[in-house]
Design brief:
Blueprint (H helix, E strand, L loop, with lengths): L2 E5 L4 H13 L3 E6 L13 E5 L5 H8 L4 E4 L5 H15 L3 E5 L18 H12 L3 E7 L1 E3 L6 E5 L8 E3 H13 L7 E7 L1
Parallel strand pairs: 1-2, 1-4, 2-3, 4-5, 5-6, 6-10, 7-9
Antiparallel strand pairs: 8-10
Helix pairs in contact: 1-5, 2-3, 3-4
The chain binds NADP nicotinamide-adenine-dinucleotide phosphate.
Length: about 190
């Protein structure tokens, strides 16, 4: 049974992936979020809810103890967030990180020009890639409510293929990566609908 800590657990993708984890895996989840009263515990036998800001190193480090996988589903000051996460993972002895980023951080999307809005995504990815963690950086396309289907994966260095990704397909991929040892370790993958 895998223990997964979900950071930014009230995010759109995180809420969808929590549902998929509970439906398709036996994972135990710790949902880490600001203002925890916003979220009802969906399964108290398998889910613990922790209130905290990712930038609060002490609360974060405590939440990380005993976890197998950290799944970061964040937005905002991602460079600072990723720095605190990497340090807390080192301190807690957790190696496996799944980090949600965005397509376009390496200028890998054909026809797309540089967008400064992605700078926090670029900086956080660079920091994680420089770490010794067993990371998987996911670079999804635009989220849709489309039906679940196969994912089209591109590796770092390859042009991004496709444009959109159904939330259900992305959540299924995240759950599979979290519960499959070695899958896409130390990789930064583009993800779109297949
Ligand atoms: N939507 C798309 O089509 C698309 C495409 C590619 C990539 N992405 C990216 O994928 C990521 C996940 O998407 P999403 O839709 O789930 O995003 P979201 O709904 O905006 O969720 C992000 C979460 O991060 C949390 N957060 C931010 N700073 C935090 C902090 N310091 N401590 C704790 N939590 C913090 C927010 O918490 P609060 O609720 O407390 O503010 C929010 O719940 C985002 O970075 C998004 O930009 C999105």
């Amino acid at each position: 049974m895998t223990k997964v800590l979900i950071l930014g657990a009230n995010g759109q993708l995180a809420r969808n992936t929590t549902r998929v984890f509970l439906k398709d895996t036996e994972a135990h989840l710790t949902l880490y979020l600001r203002r925890a009263s916003r979220l009802a515990n969906p399964d108290p036998k398998r889910v613990t809810v922790v209130e905290g800001d990712v930038l609060d190193a002490a609360i974060l480090q405590t939440a990380m103890r005993g976890q197998d996988v950290v799944y970061a589903n964040l937005a905002g000051d991602m460079a600072r967030q990723s720095s605190v996460i990497v340090d807390a993972m080192h301190a807690a002895g957790v190696k496996r990180l799944i980090f949600i980023s965005s397509m376009g951080i390496y200028r890998e999307v054909p026809g797309e020009t540089y967008r400064s809005v992605l700078d926090p995504y670029r900086e956080s990815a660079a920091l994680i890639e420089q770490s010794d963690l067993d990371y998987t950086i996911l670079r999804p396309g635009w989220f849709t409510r489309g039906p679940e289907g196969p994912c089209q994966i591109t590796q770092k260095g390859e042009p991004f293929r496709g444009h959109d990704i159904a939330l259900d397909s992305l959540s299924a991929l995240i759950a599979r990566i979290a519960t499959t040892p070695g899958l896409y370790v130390r990789a930064s993958i583009g993800v779109s609908d297949g």
